[in-house]
Structure formats: structure tokens, C-alpha cells
Amino acid sequence: MTITIYHNPDCGTSRNTLAMIRQSGEEPEVIEYLKTSPSRERLVQLIHAMGITPRALLRENGTPYAELGLGNPKWTDDELVDFMLAHPILINRPIVETPLGTKLCRPSEAVLDILPNPDIGPFTKDDGEVVIDADGRRVR
Question: What global pTM score does this model have?
């Protein structure tokens, strides 16, 4: 079974998602997309597999989103993909692919919906937020 995560190790959400995948018993292929950006074809495949638009994948905070005027609706999907390829920091993360689907895992616990083994036992995020309690129940 192959699980892939498009990961940014500086992002808490991405680190928590990766930890949940590993706690499920899987060792995913980790692609640090800021170092190894997806090709245009691959990025379009991921967007399509998630069932979202390129605009829904754009990250605003900590990116050149505002200075590039990406909030303007004039940009086409193809142009938005071009911006993400030119500035990979604009790609929101983490994106996870499993045999059960592809998902932008924000919040990180969204990964549980596509893990083959979502019963990962108790899990607490880096910031102390409990995701799965000691009885194995998802919190929230």
C-alpha cells in the first residue's frame, strides 16, 4: 500500500498529519513539496482527485498571495496553477494520497477519513489539542 504526503516540516498541521499516518502503522512517501515541487500534470491530478478548484488549494498566509493579487477573480484555473508552480509556498498543505482517496488535510485529523487503518489509538497534536482520547474516540 502506498501513502504519499506532500509535506512541509515547518508546518504544525503537516507534522501532525504525518505523525497520524505513521501511528496508523504506515510509512508514507514524504515529498517536501517546497524542495521538490510537483509537475503541472501532477498538481492538476491532485486537484482533480481532491475534487476542488485550484483556488481552493491556494494558501494565503505567509505567501505572496496578496502581493500577486490572487484574490482577484480574474485569474483562471490555469493561471492559478501557474502561480502555484512558480511559488510552491502557495500550495496549501498537507495533501495526502491513500488508496482510499486524496485530501487536503486541514485540519490534520482529516487524514483519518482516508487512512486504511484509522484506529490509531490516542493522539494529541503538537499544540496539546487531543484528537483521539485514551478510549480511542475522536474528540469533536
Answer: 0.94
Asked whether the beta carbons of 5 and 32 are under 8 A apart, the reply is no
11 is catalytic: yes
Q: Which CATH architecture has domain 40-90?
A: 3-Layer(aba) Sandwich (3.40)
Average pLDDT, integer, range 22-26: 96
1-33+93-140 with 40-90: one CATH topology? yes
CATH number of 1-33+93-140: 3.40.30.10
Catalytic pick among 11, 57, 81, 105: 11
**For the segment 27-86, what is each residue's pLDDT rounded down to a tens digit?**
999 999 999 999 999 999 999 999 999 999 999 999 999 999 999 999 999 999 999 999
The residues spanned by each domain of the chain are: 1-33+93-140, 40-90
Task: Give me the pLDDT at residue 12, please.
Answer: 96
CB 115 within 8 A of CB 121: no
- Burial (CB < 10 A; 0-12, 13-18, 19+), residue 68, is middle
